[in-house]
Amino acid sequence: MSVRTGLLRTVGAVTAAYGAVAAYRPGWLARPVGLVDPAGNTHPHTATALRPLAWRDAASGLAMLLAPRGPALVTATAVRIASDVGDAVLFGTGSGSRVRRAGAVVTALGWAAVTVAALAGGRGGGADGPVPGGPGS
To answer: What pLDDT, in 10s, does the model give residues 96-123?
Structure first.
């Protein structure tokens, strides 16, 4: 399996930063998915429910950023992809208006797709070569 380690590390860094900010300010996560009141405020109970998702993002992003190349990085990346797919299901079925739900699904699946593409490497330039301990090594 070939991977684009640099892109995986970048996705990890962005995810970790976003997760940390969203844990501190849950409105960053609540607004785009429509989990705010008409005035745009996040209810304290909603903030409490969203913080674990934000910390999950921070932790999985940090794992992608710091995991050694090989099975650990592949596992951290798989967790990130599963989280994005889970977010698409969660926010696509239970939050806000139809437009907000669609936006949340597109955003979550878009991040999952970028991460899958980086994990898969590709036939063109930019792949780092086989993952030590992965298939084909």
So the answer is: 788 988 999 999 999 999 999 999 985 4
Q: Please compute, for residue 39, the number of CA atoms within 13 A of its CA located in the half-sphere on the CB side.
A: 3
Q: How many CA atoms lie within 13 A of 63 on its CB side?
A: 18
Amino acid identity for residue 131 in this structure: V
DSSP 2: B
Q: Where are the domains of the chain?
A: 5-118
Q: Quick one: tokens of 128? A: 């780092």
Q: 57-68 pLDDT, tens per residue?
A: 999 999 999 999
Question: If DSSP codes are grouped into helix, strand and coil, which group holds residue 34?
Answer: coil
Letter for the amino acid at 64? M
User: What is the C-alpha to C-alpha distance for residues 125 and 35, in angstroms, rounded to an integer?
Assistant: 41
User: Does the predicted TM-score (pTM) go above 0.85?
Assistant: no
Longest dimension (CA), the chain: 55
Contact 66, 1 (CB under 8 A): no
